[in-house]
Write the structure tokens for this entry.
Amino acid sequence: MNISFQTDTFYTFILFKGKRQVICMYMRFVLTLSIVLFLGGATPLHAQQYLQAIAKRGDGAISILREFECYTTCNLNEFYRLNPQSKRKGLREKEIYRLPILVYPYNSKSIRSTINVYDLPRARKIQTYNEAMHAGGLKSDDYRKGNKQLWVPYHFLSCPHEEAQKSIRPLETETLPPQDLPPKPKKALGLRGTYPILGPKYASVPLVDRKLRGYVYYMVTGHGGPDPGAVGRRLGKTLAEDEYAYDVALRFTRNLLSHGATVYVVVRDPNDGIRGGEYLPPDKDEVVWGNVPIPRSQVQRLQQRVDIVNALHQKNKKNGVVKQRQIIMHIDSRSRGKRIDMFFYHRKGDKEGQGIAQSLRRTIETKYAEVQKGRVYKGDVSTRDLFILRETTVPSVFVELGNIQNPQDQGRWVLERNRELLASWLTEGILAAEGK
């Protein structure tokens, strides 16, 4: 096949505020074809346009492909072919790189006729990919609307049998050293008890030791019932704050119980114990302690939780319990491009709550230093005049797990293994705070 062509090239910058900066390169071609050859699928022309992106700080070839849900060996090799200098020098912040994602002007008829690939399963994969990129915020328009751009990862055409590896990275790093896995539980002293709220698989809790015997914790997760809290999107699926904060809190609760503590799970779901998998479907059947429905009014919801915690605090105090703490767990919501580390609040003047928050922060910082060498942990501890902190009488710490909108932060709790790891680290922080 002899092809001659002339090109006029210009660039359109599509800038997503706070998101990945994506550049689409449009070319106008004048082609002279001696022979047109189709081999059952479209082999991309060397002149085909590729999606381009501006590298952010810390980007690598693998991480940027993961962000665009197209990390395969085939695509990685194509990335290095398109950007040969990057294999030796790595990616530099604010430089433009071509991605192994071909951009076609959608013909408003079908994906197959647009790219000359008459393979229905492959076309459906391309459709799903484009919808996921749009839902995730990396693609500004649906391919059928607006600028009508169809994105096709290189491997869909050249290596169709390769499957993209999952983009969710354990605690924002591509590999996790074996020593940073949740520690295997020590040999149990016996059965601590059975707690149905944890779910059938985790209801039986072994007694590892009695380090927290005599301590009482009130576990209060954000939102629930009619209010899912902050909502994010990932690969077309909904991430609800109340579901993920609750799952981490239940794992945290189980760990505290195994060390001999008493834990009140204040916000409760009657049929969602500790759950596996990445996507936790949202529901509205949560109640509070005593199986009381959660009201719609935000003020009433917060007052309801304050009343429960204060009543239990006073009851346990009369029974001689001195060491009581409230742990409040939420997931923040910021702009999609804002990546934030776990951070902690306490109320002004609450020295015990401040001490616990600082211990949790130190523990998380130490773990991050081990897992992500060279990356500075920026989570902080500060006071905040929040209703639930101000109005409760028990020493309290407010935990924010990250930004539910940010794809990298999402990996912190979407992956089940990470939820278990967070619970393990938080438990270590509590033990350190209590001098155990």
User: Anything to note?
Assistant: Residues 298-318 form the longest helix (21 residues). Residues 1-19, 25-46, 167-181 have pLDDT under 50 and may be disordered. The CA atoms of residues 254 and 327 lie 14 Å apart.
